[in-house]
Amino acid sequence: MRIGATIFNQNYRDWDRYEAEEKGQPVPRRATRSDREIFREEIGIARIADECGFDSLWTIEHHFTPYTMVTNPLQYLTYIAGITSHVDLGTMVTVLPWHNPVRVAEDVNMLDSFIGPDRNVICGVGRGLGRREYAGLGIDQNEARGRFDESLQVLKQLLSTGQCDFDGEFYKIHGLRLRPQPERDLSANLWCAGGTAQTVEIIAKHDVKPLTIPTTSLDVALANMHRYAELRQQAGYAPSHTKLALWTYVAETPGEAQAGAERYMVEYADSALRHYELLGTHLGGTRGYESYGALQDALRNDPSPFKFGFYRSHPWGTPEQTIARATELANAFGTDEIMFIFKYGAMPMDAAEKSMRLFAKEVMPALKKLNPRPLTVDSVSAAHEQQPGK
């Protein structure tokens, strides 16, 4: 199994100032801690990953808030390509409705031409959830599903052949050919986040492999992957592995690990609640996001399951504890690669580096030996049978 690391670039301590400014209250114009200082610091995650034998380095896309501050993941990864030598590079995710899919394909193709045949660009894509982001980019969130579906089809054509003919509602493309001319079929490097039932249906239909980023809960994410396996079989495709993002914190003693995991994972969950406005009411009335509207209703009554969900379910602890939980999740999700997040919330870089280096030394070798089977309908049925009460 492959092991990756992920760069988030969060400025968690700026949330109070940011939200007050958003409400029109008088606040300092700038964050106490510079966003650019965080960028310079977190490039260290990439250097450590390359040095310590990680297989891949990933980053994500978000806009306008302190949640994460990577506005163009492929641009960021192009810089990372120049300061690393070994790691593959992945997006988790590029949000397709916010981009012209032709430009996404061009950027992937350009980066692939820079890094050469011995490294890969893994193009993870998704649909996006943040209302502020859709509004700030001038895109109607009610159009997200249609834009995503069409963009995925365009991108798959271009990554497969370098050519595209497509006639849709949002994109009409005829006789297009990429330059520089691609030298290999990159469609196997296309993965997609499946955070809702609607998205799972789209990616299963188009034979796109699933990228699991459990921003709500691991239980919901696993249920979506079970549904994906069923839909994929119905569409006539062979079973597929998943790629799985997990938060971690590793320390020498259980007490030290618990203190770090509880503090920083709860901070991360709080930042996600605030960025996605999960205590609001807007998502239930947004086309294609009705399931998130139900989540908002539940969280307004009690946000604690979400705030403590990462701490209660993700792999952290001593090396032995981390190996055990990560192994359990890898097998449950049928994953061929786990992308670990080492720095999040207000975690200082020295704490993240200490955890990451201990992980690389004592956890990663054991996880790389794993070889989970891809999710199948039979394995899903067996998992249901093993649930309590079955």
Task: Walk me through the structure.
The chain is α/β, with parallel strands linked by helices and 390 residues long. The chain has helices at 15-22, 35-52, 73-83, 101-115, 131-136, 144-161, 197-205, 218-234, 254-275, 290-301, 304-307, 309-313, 319-333, 349-368, 377-385, and strands at residues 2-7, 56-59, 88-95, 121-126, 163-167, 172-177, 190-193, 209-212, 242-247, 249-250, 316-317, 335-341. The model has no long low-confidence stretch (mean pLDDT 95). It contains 15 helices and twelve strands. The strands form three sheets. An eight-stranded parallel beta barrel has the order 1-2-3-4-7-8-9-12, surrounded by eight helices. A two-stranded antiparallel ribbon has the order 5-6. A two-stranded parallel sheet has the order 10-11. Helix content is 48%, strand content 15%. Helix 4 (101-115) links the parallel strand 3 and strand 4. It has a single domain (2-381), classed as TIM Barrel, CATH 3.20.20.30. The longest helix has 22 residues, at 254-275.
